[in-house]
Amino acid sequence: MLLLVLLLISVASCAHVISRDLRDQADPFLTVPQALNNPTEYKGKIVIWGGEILRTENRQDGSTEIEVLQRALDRWEEPKDPSASEGRFLVREQRFLDPSIFRPGMRITVGGELQGVEAVPLGQMEYWYPLVLARQLYLWPPFDYPYYYSYYPYYYYYYPYAYSFFLGGFYGGGGFYRHHHGHRGGGGWGGRGGRHR
Q1: In whole numbers, what is the pLDDT of the chain averaged over residues?
Q2: How confident is the model at residue 135 (pLDDT cuts 50, 70, 90)?
Q3: Could you please report the per-residue DSSP string of 107-118?
Q4: Residue 64 belongs to a domain with what CATH number?
Q5: pLDDT level of residue 10 (50, 70, 90 thresholds)
Q6: Which residues, 6 or more positions from 83, have their beta carbon under 8 angstroms from its beta carbon?
Q7: Structural domain harbouring 104
């Protein structure tokens, strides 16, 4: 059983959380400061960014805004290196996301389209953020979750009916999707779920 668990962890650790199609469209070298300083030039560009959630706010039009402190991503799009950041950015998701799930401190990876910049009050000042219209979101489990409980059996949870942070969460193409980390396919509500080669 231990060997099986270690094998599944190995498989899960080398799978992308953003689809190949979106990765192929994204500019891997476009940074948060570049998008902030040249919003017109980079509007419409696809980026894959991630980091730590600072705030999640549900808006009157039914959409959700997430403020993220950028962190560098590893090759599988997982946010790393909590000691460094390029700054903050905003994620706009067209549907409702539960702030108790997408809560401060959780890590997130987003693939989406730059929409320019937006000013939001921060303390006594206005802070300008690059704005990303989300196409795919992945909510990472907490750092302290005991991963060796994550991999068997397979569980699928469909937003907003159930949540459990022993699994990662994927949102894209119409639904929030939780999946077994070693599983590379599947999907929720017609979305493209799972991790990706």
Answers
A1: 76
A2: very high
A3: EEEEEEEEEEEE
A4: 2.40.50.140
A5: very low
A6: none
A7: 2-179
Q: How far apart are CA 21 and CA 86, in angstroms?
A: 26
Q: For residue 55, which amino acid is it?
A: R
Residues ≥6 apart with Cβ < 8 Å to 144? none
* Paired tokens of 119: 């000013």
pLDDT for res 124 = 86
Task: Give the whole-angstrom CA distance, residue 65 versus residue 134.
Answer: 10
Report the share of the chain in percent with pLDDT over 70.
Answer: 65
Q: How many domains does the chain have?
A: 1
93 located within any domain:
yes
Neighbouring CB atoms inside 10 A of 1's CB total: 7
Q: Are 159 and 187 in contact (CB under 8 A)?
A: no
**Which two tokens mark 142?**
């907490």
